[in-house]
Each structure stands twice: as C-alpha cells, then as structure tokens.
Amino acid sequence: MKRTSTRWAAASGATVLALTLAACGGGDAGSASGSEGSGASGSVAVDGSSTVFPMSVAAQELLNEENPGVQVTVGESGTGGGFERFCVGETDVSDASRPIEEDEVAVCEENGIEYTELQVATDALTVAVHPDLAVDCLTTEQLVELVGPNSEVTNWSDLDPSFPDQEISFFFPGTDSGTYDYMANDVVGDESEVLRDDVESSEDDNVLVQGVGGTDGAVGFFGYTYYEENQDTLKALSIDDGNGCVEPSAETAQAGEYTPLARPLFIYVANTEYAENEAVAAYVDFYIENLADIAEIGQFIPLSDELYSETQSALESLGS
Amino acid sequence: MSIAATTARQVTLATGKSKDRTPVSLAFLVALWFSLFFGVVVLLALIINTAIDGSGRFDIELLTNYVSVVRPEATGFRAGILGSLWLMGFTALMAVPLGIAAALYLEEFADPTTRWNRFVEVNLQNLAAVPAIVYGLLAVAIMALLGFRDTGIVLGGALALALLILPVIIITTREAVRAVPREIREGSLALGATVWQTTWRQTLPSAIPGIATGTILGLSRAIGEAAPLVVVGLAGSLLFDPEGVMSSVTALPMQIYSLTSNSREALREAASAAIIVLLAMVLGLNALAIFIRNKFQRSW
Fold first, then answer.
1. Which of B69, B263, B288 has the CB atom closest to A203's CB atom?
2. Complex ipTM
3. CA neighbor of A130 nearest in space, from A231, A201, A212, A237
C-alpha cells in the first residue's frame, strides 16, 4: 500500500515537472522569431532607486517591444546602492530619487566615471481630508506628529486647538507601496521606517479615496496624480515647510516649493558608456523620448515643458 | 536494521498494550498526532491560500511571457523559469563532480584518524548548517578574485548555489558509499583489482542510486533559494532569455520575492501563481528523487 502511494506521488510529480519544462521549451520558438527588430543591440545595466524602478522597467519593456536586441537589466538596490555600483563602473545608468551626494561624487571622480544627470519625473504625495473638514494647512511638524509611529493624536483638536473637535480616521496606503515608503522614510524619517498602525490600510488607492471622501474627519495620503483624478470628492491640505502654506499642484511640485512632499526623480548616465555602447544610447534616448508615457505608467507627475526641454538639451549635449 | 525495527514494534505491541491506556500515554499520543496534524494543516493552508490568490493566472502566459508593468495582467515568469533551469544545470555541473570526488576521497582513501581529516569532517558537518546568504557573499568574493565586475550572471549565481549544496552532496554521497557492503570491495580486491579500479567499477556504481537521490534533493533546495542570489546581484527585472554562462540572469524565487511586495494587484496575483509553479518544480525534483531511490535501490 505504502509503496503504491509513493510511486503514484513520484509519477504525478514527474509529470508536473515534465509539463513545466515542456511549456518553457515551447516558448523558445517565439523569441527566436522576435529578434528581427532593427537598430542597436547590446546590453545595458541599470540599478538604483526602487522608486524610479517602475519607470526604468517600463522603458525597458516598451523599448523591447520595438527593439528586442537591446538587453536591459534593471535592479533596485536603492539610490545609494545604485551609486555605489555606478561609480565603480559596474552599471551604465543609475536610478536616483535624490541628487548625487558629495561623497558619491568623489568616488565617481576617483574612478574616472563622468556622468550626466537627467531629471525624468517628479514624485509628489498629497495629504487629503474629507471635504467638509475645516482644516486647510498643516506644518511639516504637524504632519509628522499626525502620521508618525508614536503618534498620540486621535482628534484634530489634539494637533492644534484651533482645529475642529473631530475624531480622525486614517486611510494609508499599504506598507509595500512606494508612497508609504516615501512618507515613512523621507518625510517622517523615524528610525523604525513605519507610520502609525491604527489605520485603515489598502493597496488599492480607490479604497483610500472612497474612505477619505466618505468618512467625516478622515485623512489619507496617496500619489499626487491620484488626487488629481479625484479632486471633486477630496480636499487636499496645503503644507507649510517653513515658507508658508503651499498647495499641492504639478507646478508647485516641479518648482520645488511643495516640500517635503515632492521630490525630483533622476537617472544618471555614464558619459563614456553612452558614447561607446549603442545599446546604452538607444535605451536612454528611448527613455527620454517617451518620458511622458513612462512617467504615467510609473504614476508620477510628468515633467513640465520647461523641465522636459532642459532634460532634452542635457541629453543632446551628452550625445555631442 | 529492518529486523531490529520489526522486533521493536512487536515488543511494544506485546508488552505495551496495557500501558497504552494510561492517561499519560494517551495524552502523549494525542500530542504526537497534533504535531503531525499541525504541520500538515499549516502547509496545506499555505498552498491552498496561495493557489486561490493566484487562481486567476494559471494560464500559458504565466510561463511564456516576461514580467510586464505595462500589461501587468499578462505578466509571465519566462525569464525566471528559464533562468532557474540554467542555474540548476550549471550548479549541478560544478557541485556534483566535486562533491562526489570529495566524498569518495574521504570515504575510500583518506585516513580518518589524522588530525587534518578530522578537521575537514567537522567543518563539513558545520558547512551544511551555514545560512544560505553567507554562500552568496562567498560567491561574490570568489567572482571578484576571478576578476568579474558584473557578478549577476549565470556563473555567479550557479557558483553561489553550488557552494550551498556542496556539503549536502558530500554528506549524502558518503553515506551512500558507506552503505555499499565491504564484501563487494574485498571480493574485487581479491580478484586482483587495484583500489582505484574497485572504487571506480564496483563501489561507485553500487552507490549511484543514493548519490542521485542526495544530489536531486540538494538541487531542489537550491532551486528555491533567493537570498544568496540577491547577494550575488542578479537583476530584478530582465526581459531576455539567458544565452550562456556569462549571460545576465534572474531566478524564479527572486522574481517572486520582488513581485509579492509590488503595489499592483495583478503583479501580486501573478507572483502567487508563480509560487505554485516553483512548488511544482520542487515537488517534481523530490518526486524524481523518490522514484530513483525506489527504482534502483538494492539491498544486500
């Protein structure tokens, strides 16, 4: 009896394996016929910020549809980890959610790596509340106090006596999202890298929008583009980072006024690789050419015309 | 051995019958059943839950497409599945000959009483318990010594996995070789064969079922590892098939790791389906090991 059952298990397991292998093998035929695309070929190594990762992956994917000859690998070691590899020449392009820092510049210089910084999008968060709530502006300190991990604030009047006496309901994005990471790491900046946990949490931004729009005294935050689409059901809070209240908008975000909830996103391109490796040139050119679509897939604010032409001219001077 | 087991059971049955009804032994029995039940239930719950999460994605695109953020609902794990198969191939190529050679030396040729060999043996036992991530660091160091800048290639990943399963292969091979009866060796030597001829033509062929089982179990452990591969620096996103030992590569567990925490629902669903694919691959390898053991095992 025991023997039969193990035999049966072996047979079925082997069948599953065989099917899996056969299915993989079957896919090979497709790729062989797809490699007739024109243009550059070669490999491109990209690494860096996990925030920019979705954009660089989208560029990789859209480029591959046109030209499968360019083999791009994209990693997400984080901005610092990306520069570490970039400045010793391991990668051709580095994704960054902040400008390169001095000590990183020093390493690059030491290894003779010259680079060009290209802004690719703007990342912005919006703190939204129920439209009837009589709160319009928070200082950065109040925001940290409101959402931070050790927050004792449960009523708007706890934050400021002039705010209404209204219980607060919280709607936060899931801990896996880049939005959550940005708020926890870059805005609140607590060592624990978390926010308060007595909140309604969802990976689905629609749930957050419905929650904030439908609950009295509710507050939530999400990517700016999401607020933009749902302006009629939400009220966005202005943020005072020491220079007066600033409303969230594409303009204030790109102008660098909407701090600390907006930041520019960059890719850094190694000049020599761009000049000598046609695959790197093809990838970066494609990336910048289709920047608006790529930013949309990544759910970031696309560059304004002005910023976009700056990025384009930086790319042109890189090519010449 | 089988006689000893039978005897032990008979003794328990014959003499333990009245004692089996005492509350203490009943409680112990219940505790044992509970332990068994708990493990199985947790495993089943995990598998069923994952299968339900990924149920929308059990289609051929899951195996033939690349990961897609533009069309997340058509995401596939082609690069990871093929990458894992390439890694397994080269891992086996590196670890199996080396592991068998080391085991044969230790078992058939080395003098177990010397201080050096005892040192090697103790280390081997300990190596099997070293965390996987440490082998990743070791592989990075070796690749750097060999002069590789980019370690996220088939060679780098396979090196890390080969180091990982080498102790397992050596230990299981030694046990398989040890199980070959002394009489076979003595018979061969008595007929005038040299020690080398005896090992190569008698001992090793007789031990092959055991060696194959151990090797496959080692490989099925390696195929599920993500940690050492992350350390080696395999790419997170990659949209082409591996083409050779120097080709950039990714692995199924790494893609699962990266996508289960993605904010896009469709990608997380695909990751759940990929977990089931990975489980099927591991179960397939284990089933193959059981099959080989049952089919070819000899008793002397």
1. B263
2. 0.71
3. A212
